[in-house]
Structures are given as structure tokens and as C-alpha cells.
Specification:
The protein is mostly beta strands. Helices cover 11% and strands 36% of the residues. The longest helix has 17 residues, at 2-18. GO terms for molecular function: hydrolase activity.
């Protein structure tokens, strides 16, 4: 009963306190999904020179006004483009004698504000910062008030343009974040800076209004569901004090980490002689950040590495105007990729994005704007203070960044330390500074030979710069394995999360990435997942599987490593599934078996194994899938382990016997072979397939096999009858015809091709054979192999082994229409493929392990840097034993790691038994 009474009294106290909360009334909407129309006049460009309406918040270019500008271009109309806004609003009569601020969360760029024709405050310069004006004396209480805002797209302050507008991103104009009124009591708490430590201690600076007459500050902690944690503390303050330092402590709290994002509300109540004057609640997480020189970053005493990405605040239809829904979607996608960190590039984000990072769990590097230029010191100091006042209490923020790539005003560095009660590290992205080496886009060889073997903590704030389909996942495995193993490396941040493709309302609604400047994302403008998305998901999985080939001796044990920092593997859940994949013409829903796996007790950073209790008939299945889910039941990744081999699959599918004898006809230059319903024409000189025909017509698959890279020097052909089969084979000659070709035609109409060949050189970009087929005739494919995304030599992770069906498309990654997965390109571990064409279908099966299927040549997007250089063989459809890597925007393939090196073949002697071999079976019967 006493407990109930105390709880009731505490609840009454809390309710009374919250009655004195700050009151918020929005004048605009809250995001791009919730807007309010204001009157609007644009001075230059489209739809200028007339009063109309515009939704607020928004960027006016996306609403049909002014001119689009990418940052490398000059500002529109030589800086004359401005937006004039008007809005009429009422203020409650009972707000009189209160403090009323008008708050702008973000407007681009110079912003002048008037209330009822009178200037509300100094012009605000700087786009991404929350600013406010006290308009208490300008308002008509209980009556209509006129708000007038002038926003200049180009700043009068040269340093603002240098920091924000001469940059590698879209430049917009407008009030792009919410606007609201903030009502406070005359005596109030201006702001609170909180340091909630991992041990439960709280240090706080409470900033008070200048007319303060309060006598104490009460501090109380609550869980998010409203439960009171511990007892309130009361700190005495003196009349006229404008800052109060609070120290208190709470027991048995849960620590905040990206893996366990536990949050609390801490409530500060301003009291005068027992009367509550004002109450402020701040959402916090208990965690401690420590940088140990020449060692690393420690959170709550645990050394951590950043699996991070850079992120713009952006949406295609609204530019920089976003919403909490977009923030949630962005963070969930990052978490899905097993990321634990995000860098705000290159300006502070919306407050709701930081809220979501707090609640879902991401480390954040928050950044003062400055791309390659920086703010002058007076402007930068003011904007830095605004950034601190609004962002500093987020537990997700563990770094501050003072600008980017030379956009660092060194005179501002001391203020980070002075104003941050948590003393978080300050980073100069792209520089060696304060014990961190954050250089961007270091080559893999340089990184391993020097970059990772100095004395500074290595943490590139940008690496593996994506562009179209290059970068991101391409090269990541090599980089990350070195980063993971190297004790002085603290991880890094990929560039960049999403393609910055904007809807051009001046060009019929097309998506524009400003050519090659902005298609740099892991996901498309509308969050379309590219192939690298899944590569990153596997490479950054916190559960790491040691490579394992499944053989008949497999006992169900798999070795794993726990790459979490705060989570035991036994907190996760694991499932297994055995799946039969069947043959070419089998339907889906083939037999499978599944079960759970006991999650082993493996502590963070330790290794162990898991044991799968498989059924006795497990070898009758084609593939074993293992799925891991985190403690929140989100999939970490699903790995596939092949059970069957291509040779066994081929034996089960290929039909050799038939009721009609194979017949061969020879002319001066051709072999014409008839088997069942199939007629094949080969060159007697080269052995190449010239024509395929069956009783339904011609299948335009021909002109192969062409060896690439190598000599197609098959010669000296003979034909023999071997059993029921016709065999056409070339003669080996070490000097002239060292590559050999053998065709076997079966009575069933199936054909076997065996090529023994030597690559042209010690190092080659591609290795294999190809054929011709008209791309216009291809409709779709169904294949057994890794999918559904294509691969590069340096981006092999992220796929699953299975049977995949893919419709033809001509998508170029990062370009309209952003349809994924792409169709054209390389696919790994092909067992068989059925081609569906506009005329007839045909099937190809292999006996080879590790064979790549090549489907045509993808469009190579414009690359002025000449770094992509992916290599494709000739012809149209290929079967490869070696494929090429792809580069990034800033690096050629060879500099992205070991996996990107060319294919190596050591034998120069052309000994017949040392050749590479490819065996294929073809079914041209049209079934």
C-alpha cells in the first residue's frame, strides 16, 4: 500500500511538472509528408515574378520554381534567386507575458524574418542549423499575425557559399525543415547539456533564462514507458544564476550501444520555493566514449570499429526536405546491411534522423558543414553553437567532424572541446588530426603497407567511393578483413548511402544524378537495392563463417567468429534448411527440411563452432542454408553451402540415349550433324558451331567456342563414331593448335563440348569461352547458381546458391530506370541455365565447378575518371573460369585489393595435360 501511495504522489508530481512544459505550435508541416501551404514568390527562374503558394517545408526547385543547381555549377541567376514567403497565424491570448520564439529548423540559405512588418532578428546565414528569434514583443495575442520570410539561395556571406554551396551535391533553396512557435514561461530552462555515463552517472549543465529567480533544480530519470528510475535529486541554485551544474547517479541502468540501444528520459524541473516553473525532458542513453591514443575507440570500455556509411539528407521528390519516415527507412536499411555507424555528410541532419539513430542503434559522426571550403570564424562559431544546442545530447553521436576535406576552420576546434560536456573526439575528415588518420580513398596496397602500420588510429571517413556499380561491395572484403585484423584500425565509412537522384520538374519528372556526379549510392534514389547492398550485408555480418566445403564427411559443424562487440551469439537465433533444387524443368516447391540450431555460447570477438543436427539423408539435398537472426529477430544473413557438385547435377539431367542414329554429313568446309530433332553445323577448319536448327526452326546460338583471352586455334579435326555417338575432335599441336576442342553428339539430340585451352598470358582479365547470340531475342533465363545479383571478381559476396529466374532488362546501375537486379553481367557458380528466347528455348549445363555465366555486356556508364575498366569477353554469352574486377570512382580495380588482381595462369609450356578445361552440355531440342 505504501508503494502504491508513493507511486501516486510521484505521478502527481510528474504531471504537475509536465504542465509547465514548453509548448510547441507548428506553423509549417513536420516533413515532406506533412506540409502546410504558405504564400510564395520566387524572384528568378521558373514561375518567378508572381505570388502563388508553396508547401512548407520544401525545396522550391522541386515545386516548380527557380533553377536546379548541382554544387559544381554556379548558383542560379548569379545569386539573385530568392524566395519570399508569407503566412498568417494566430497566437493564443494566454501566451501573453510568456516567452515566444519562432524556430526554424533549416532554411537555405540567408533567412530574414519579419513579424507584423517588424524585423524579428538578425539575418541568419547557414542552411542546416536550427535558429530562433524571440518574437514575444512583436505578436498580437489572440489575433492574426503576419509572418514574412525572405530566403536567399545565395548567401551574402562568401564563407557560407564556400562551405555549403561549392560542393559535390545538389544545391537547393527554401524552408526545407519545419517552422514552429515555442512558448516558455518567463523563468525557464533555455537548454540542457547532458553527459550520461556508462556507469549510471549523469553530469549536466542546465542553462537558465537571465531573469532566473528559481531556488532549485530537480532531476529525475524515467524509463521510456514512464517508470520512475531511482529517486529524484534536488540541487540548490542561486537567484540570478544562468547555469547550474548537476551531478547525480542511477543504479542498474542499461547501457546504450548500437546493439542494445536502451534509452531513458531525464527530466529537469525548475523550482522556486516549491513551485514548479518549468520542466524540460531530454532523451538520453548511458554510454561512455573514450579514445586511447595509438590504440582505438572504446565505447563502454569495449574497443569498437566503425562499419559505417556516409549519408545525405535527401529524397528525390523533395530534395533536402525529408521526414521521420524516411529517417526510419534509411536507418533500417543501414542496419539491414549490418552497419553500426553513419557519418553526416556534409552538414547536420534533421533532428528526427538522430532520434532514429538513438532508438534503433547507430554510431553517428555529426558534421559542421564545409565541403572543401569553410565558414569564417564568427559565422562558424555561431553555427557550431546552434549545432551543439540541438544535437549534443544524442547518445548516438560519438564523434564531431569539423568540416570535410580541407573545409576545416582550425580556429573552431577549441569550441568543440569547450562546449561539449562529453568531450567527444573531433575529427578532420581526410586529414591526420588528433590521433586519427582519416585519409580518403587510400589504395589497398598503400593501406596495408603504410596506412595501417603507422601510429595513428586509422579510420577513413570515406573509402571505396561508389559510382554506378563500382565501389562499395567491390573491394570491401579485402579492406574489411585487414581492418578487422589490424588493432590500430577503427573501421571506416563507405561513400555513399544513396544515389542523389533528384526529380527534375523542369524536365518532365526525370531522375537526374547530374551525370556521374551523384549516382554513388549503395541504394538508388528511392532505396532500390543494388548488388553491393547484399555484399556489404555479408561482409559486415557480425557472425562470420569460416569457409567450408560440404563433403560426405561433413558432421554438421561450422566454425564461426563472433564479430559483435556487445552481444553473445547465444542471444541470436539460428535456423538451417536443406533444399532440393531439382532440374531445368522442375517446378518450384521442391522438397526441403528445416530446423533450428542451438546458438552457441560465443562471447564478442571470440571464435567457436555451431553444430547442426542434420537428418540422415542430408546428402540427398542440393544446398544447405543457414540463417542467423539478431536478438531483435532481424535477419543478419542467410549463407548457402553447396552439397551437390555440378558433375552430379549434369548426370541427373543430361539425356544421351535416343532411338534415332546420329548422322553426319561432310562438305569441303562443314560438318552437318543430325541427332533426333536437332541439326548442327560445324566448321571443319575451326570446329566452331556455325548453326543450330531443330524441327521448329533456327536457334541463333553460334560462333563458338571462342577462347578469351587466348587463341582460338583449334585445328586438324577428325570425326569418329564411338558407340552411338558422333565425336568431332581437334588435334593437339604444341606450337600451332595447343588449344583443343571436342564435340560429342548423342542420339538424344544433346551435345557435349569439351575445350582444353591455355590463356594467352601469365595475367589475364578474363578466361573462358564465348558464343554469339542476338540480345534482342533474349526474354529471360532460369539458372542454377549464385544469385540473384551479378558479381565482379572483387565482389563475390552477398549472393545465395539456388535456382533463379530473371527477366531480361537493360538496366545500367545508377541510371534510370533503377530496375534491380540487373540482367546483364557475370553470375557465379553456374550449374545450368535455361535460356528463354523470342524463338526457342535452349539449355546449357556444365560439369565444371566455379564456372561463371556471362550474359551479354552491360552498358558501361560514362566514367570520366577512367577507373571502372571492367573487362568483358567478345561474343554475347560466355562460360568463364576467370572474370574481371571493377573499380571505384577514385580507384582502378587493381588498387582495391587482392581479389581485384588479374587472373593468374603460370604454365607457358603448353603441355596438353596442364590446360584449363571447360565441359558443357547443350540441349537444343526446344523442350
Amino acid at each position: 500500500m505504501r508503494r502504491i501511495l508513493f507511486t501516486y504522489i510521484a505521478l502527481l508530481s510528474v504531471l504537475h511538472s509536465f504542465a509547465q512544459n514548453t509548448e510547441i505550435r507548428y506553423l509549417s508541416g513536420t516533413g515532406n509528408d506533412n506540409t502546410v501551404d504558405w504564400q510564395f514568390y520566387c524572384t528568378e527562374g521558373r514561375n518567378s515574378g508572381k505570388w502563388t503558394t508553396i508547401p512548407v517545408p520544401s525545396c522550391w526547385e522541386l515545386q516548380g520554381f527557380g533553377k536546379y543547381n548541382y554544387g559544381f555549377n554556379k548558383d542560379s541567376a548569379k545569386g539573385k534567386e530568392k524566395g519570399l514567403y508569407k503566412y498568417t497565424f494566430k497566437v493564443p491570448s494566454d501566451w501573453k507575458n510568456k516567452v515566444v520564439n519562432i524556430v526554424f529548423e533549416g532554411s537555405m540559405t540567408d533567412t530574414d524574418v519579419k513579424i507584423n512588418g517588424k524585423v524579428a532578428g538578425a539575418k541568419h546565414q547557414g542552411s542546416f542549423y536550427v535558429f530562433k528569434h524571440d518574437i514575444s514583443k512583436l505578436l498580437k495575442y489572440g489575433k492574426d499575425n503576419l509572418l514574412e520570410v525572405t530566403v536567399a539561395k545565395h548567401s551574402d556571406n562568401k564563407s557560407v557559399n564556400e562551405a555549403e554551396r561549392k560542393a559535390d551535391f545538389w544545391i537547393f533553396g527554401g524552408i526545407f525543415r519545419p517552422v514552429y512557435l515555442e512558448m516558455l514561461p518567463q523563468q525557464h530552462i533555455d537548454n540542457v547539456a547532458v553527459n550520461a555515463k556508462a556507469n549510471g552517472d549523469i553530469d549536466a549543465n542546465v542553462f537558465l533564462s537571465k531573469n532566473n529567480k528559481a531556488t532549485e533544480i530537480r532531476t529525475q530519470l524515467f524509463s521510456l514507458d514512464g517508470r520512475q528510475i531511482g529517486s529524484a535529486t534536488n540541487d540548490k541554485i542561486g537567484v540570478g544564476d544562468t547555469i547550474a551544474s548537476i551531478k547525480t547517479s542511477f543504479k542498474n541502468i542499461k547501457q546504450w550501444t548500437p546493439e542494445t540501444p536502451d534509452l531513458y528520459n531525464v527530466v529537469f524541473t525548475l523550482v522556486q520555493n516549491g513551485n514548479v516553473l518549468h520542466t524540460v525532458s531530454k532523451r538520453i542513453g548511458f554510454r561512455t566514449v573514450e579514445v586511447k591514443e595509438r590504440d582505438g575507440i572504446y565505447v563502454n570500455g569495449v574497443k569498437v570499429k566503425m562499419k559505417g556509411v556516409n549519408r545525405h539528407s535527401f529524397w528525390p521528390t523533395s530534395g533536402r526536405a525529408t521526414s521521420k519516415g524516411i529517417s526510419i527507412a534509411d536507418v533500417l536499411l543501414m542496419k539491414e546491411m549490418n552497419m553500426n555507424a553513419v557519418r553526416m555528410s556534409h552538414y547536420p541532419p534533421d533532428g528526427h534522423f538522430l532520434d532514429v539513430c538513438d532508438s534503433l542503434g547507430l554510431f553517428v559522426m555529426d558534421e559542421l558543414a564545409g565541403w572543401h571550403g569553410h565558414y569564417d570564424t564568427p559565422t562558424g562559431k555561431k553555427l557550431l553553437k546552434e549545432m551543439f544546442d540541438n544535437d549534443e545530447n544524442h547518445p548516438s553521436i560519438i564523434f564531431w567532424a569539423n568540416g570535410n576535406e580541407g573545409g576545416h576552420n582550425l580556429e573552431l576546434d577549441p569550441y568543440f572541446r569547450q562546449w561539449d560536456i562529453q568531450h567527444r573526439p573531433v575529427i578532420h575528415p581526410w586529414q591526420v588530426f588528433s590521433g586519427f588518420d582519416t585519409q580518403h580513398y587510400r589504395d589497398f596496397d598503400y593501406g596495408i603497407g603504410n596506412y595501417m602500420h603507422g601510429h595513428n588510429i586509422v579510420m577513413p571517413t570515406e573509402f571505396l567511393h561508389g559510382m554506378y556499380d563500382g565501389g562499395h561491395g567491390a573491394g570491401l572484403y579485402d579492406y574489411w578483413e585487414e581492418m578487422w585484423r589490424n588493432p590500430i584500425c577503427a573501421g571506416g565509412f563507405l561513400w555513399v548511402f544513396a544515389d542523389e537522384g533528384v526529380v527534375r520538374t523542369d524536365k518532365g519528372g526525370i531522375i537526374d544524378t547530374d551525370k556521374e556526379h551523384a549516382p554513388d549510392g549503395i541504394v538508388g534514389p528511392y532505396h532500390e537495392k543494388e548488388g553491393s547492398f547484399f555484399t556489404i550485408k555479408e561482409v559486415w555480418s557480425p557472425i562470420f563463417f569460416e569457409r567450408k566445403d560440404i563433403t560426405p564427411a561433413f558432421d554438421g559443424s561450422l566454425k564461426i567468429e563472433n564479430r559483435y562487440y556487445f552481444t553473445n551469439v547465444n542471444q541470436c537465433s539460428l535456423q538451417w534448411k536443406l533444399q532440393k533444387l531439382g532440374g531445368v524443368n522442375d517446378q518450384a516447391n521442391l522438397s526441403s527440411k528445416s530446423g533450428t540450431i542451438a546458438a552457441p555460447d560465443i562471447k564478442p570477438s571470440e571464435k567457436g563452432s555451431l553444430k547442426i543436427d542434420l537428418p540422415a539423408d542430408w546428402q540427398n539435398y542440393d544446398v544447405l542454408y543457414v540463417t542467423a537472426k539478431d536478438p531483435f529477430s532481424r535477419e543478419i544473413f542467410t549463407w548457402s553451402f553447396k552439397i551437390t557438385l555440378p558433375s552430379k547435377t549434369a548426370d541427373n539431367i543430361v539425356k544421351k540415349d535416343g532411338s534415332i542414329n546420329v548422322e553426319i554429313e561432310k562438305s569441303d568446309s562443314l560438318y552437318i550433324v543430325n541427332a533426333a530433332t536437332v541439326q548442327l553445323t560445324f566448321s571443319r577448319n575451326t570446329g566452331l558451331l556455325k548453326e543450330v536448327k531443330n524441327d521448329k526452326g533456327i536457334i541463333p546460338f553460334n560462333n563458338g567456342p571462342i577462347v578469351d583471352e587466348g587463341a582460338t586455334n583449334f585445328a586438324g579435326f577428325t570425326d569418329t563414331v564411338e558407340g552411338d555417338n558422333i565425336v568431332i575432335r581437334s588435334t593437339f599441336d604444341r606450337k600451332q593448335s595447343y588449344n583443343t576442342l571436342e564435340w560429342t553428339i548423342y542420339p538424344s539430340g544433346w551435345i557435349k563440348m569439351k575445350v582444353n585451352y591455355f590463356p594467352a598470358a601469365y595475367l589475364t582479365d578474363v578466361v573462358g569461352v564465348n558464343f554469339s547470340f542476338p540480345e534482342y531475342a533474349m526474354k529471360s533465363v532460369k539458372y542454377m547458381g549464385d544469385g540473384p545479383y551479378r558479381v565482379w571478381k572483387n565482389r563475390m559476396k552477398g549472393t545465395q546458391f539456388g535456382v533463379w529466374e530473371k527477366e531480361y532488362n537493360n538496366t545500367a546501375t545508377g541510371e534510370v530506370p533503377f530496375v534491380y537486379p540487373e540482367f546483364k553481367g557475370y553470375y557465379a557458380n553456374m550449374y545450368w541455365c535455361k535460356f528463354f528466347t523470342s524463338s526457342q528455348n535452349f539449355t546449357v549445363i556444365t560439369e565444371n565447378e566455379d564456372l561463371f555465366l556471362r550474359l551479354f555486356t552491360p552498358k558501361v556508364s560514362k566514367d570520366p575518371y577512367q577507373n571502372f575498366v571492367p573487362v568483358f569477353p567478345g561474343g554475347d554469352i560466355s562460360f568463364m573460369q576467370g572474370i574481371s574486377a571493377i573499380g571505384t570512382k577514385t580507384q582502378k580495380p587493381l588498387t582495391t585489393g587482392v581479389m581485384a588482381q588479374k587472373n593468374i595462369f603460370y604454365d607457358y609450356e603448353k603441355e596438353k595435360d596442364r590446360a584449363l578445361a571447360i565441359t558443357l552440355y547443350f540441349d537444343f531440342t526446344g523442350k
